[in-house]
Amino acid sequence: MKKILLFNLIIVIFILSLIEIVIRLSINISPQGISEGVINTSINPMYNFPNVNGKKVFGKKVFTDKFGNRISKEDLIKDEKKLKNIYFIGGSVTFGSGVEQKNTFSGILNKKFENYNIINSSVIGSNLINNLKILNQIEKKNLDKIFINLSLDDLDGLEKLIDENRKEDNQKNNQESHDEVKNDFISKLKNNVFLNHINKFIRSKSVTYVWLKGLFLNSEESYYNYSLNNFKKKENQINFKKILKKISYLNNNELNNKIIFIVIPYSYQISDRNCKFQDFAEQKIDEYFLENKIKLIKFKKIFCNIRDKKNLYFKFDPSHLSKYGHKIVARQLKGEIN
Fold this sequence. Notes:
The structure is a single chain. 45% of the residues lie in helices and 13% in strands. By secondary structure, it is of the alpha/beta class. It has a single domain (39-162, 224-337), classed as Rossmann fold (3-Layer(aba) Sandwich), CATH 3.40.50. The strands form 3 sheets. Strands 7-6-8-9-10 form a 5-stranded parallel β-sheet. Helix 6 (193-205) crosses helix 7. It is globular.
């Protein structure tokens, strides 16, 4: 009996291993783990540890310089150049999770323009508040441009923003839509410590898990709806506008209009149906950036017009770009640097 059970266990392990190998070889999908020692959450702003050497993010080794900026492995042996600096600030999409730095849009541009230092000053998990703090710490000497990627989930946490001048509004709308209830359920799952640990461990090791999760839970649509709901919260809208005003003031008075925002859509936003209209978040972004006169480059239309647009992202990933996606973004941003 024990031999039969052992034999069956070996067969199951073999089949699962075979499925894992087949998926890794045939589908553009990435594990979603982040090694300890990449992100320093004990500081404010949250940032990458300096001199990270070979730890993994989404299955790819990452390296950082003495300041915590992400760099290519090849850059470890390069001398620092006295050139004009171009910074990229953002979260995991700009960081390039699942892609080597040389294949991210900042890495591609850095190789293309040898007369500039193009610096990936992004950190996984950064939101709009954290991005503003990173912006305030950037070295202003030899500064040419700063690109800030505004992701759909950058409003996470804005309702908790402490603002002494904020007027409290205790009125609540008791009529919750179906989407809000659904998103509240997703939020509870995301904040469950036990489930979080299990989820982080398995998704960091197995692309089969990522594949099954995306296939059966429709993660692209769920993450989109969860993030979209943040734009519908009154508190988030108020604080979003306040942060943009601070950035606009900094841009006009200290940086000589060197800030350019880019908006890279979620994969669900470039479906055939969603390409035909602007959602609530897109409308608000247009409105707020027009008010604050901040330059904005939107990639939704560009992505929607690409024939093989689904290849812009990792399979079953709501936001992270593949090598091809990074290449398209770099191609569009070349003109802003020339």
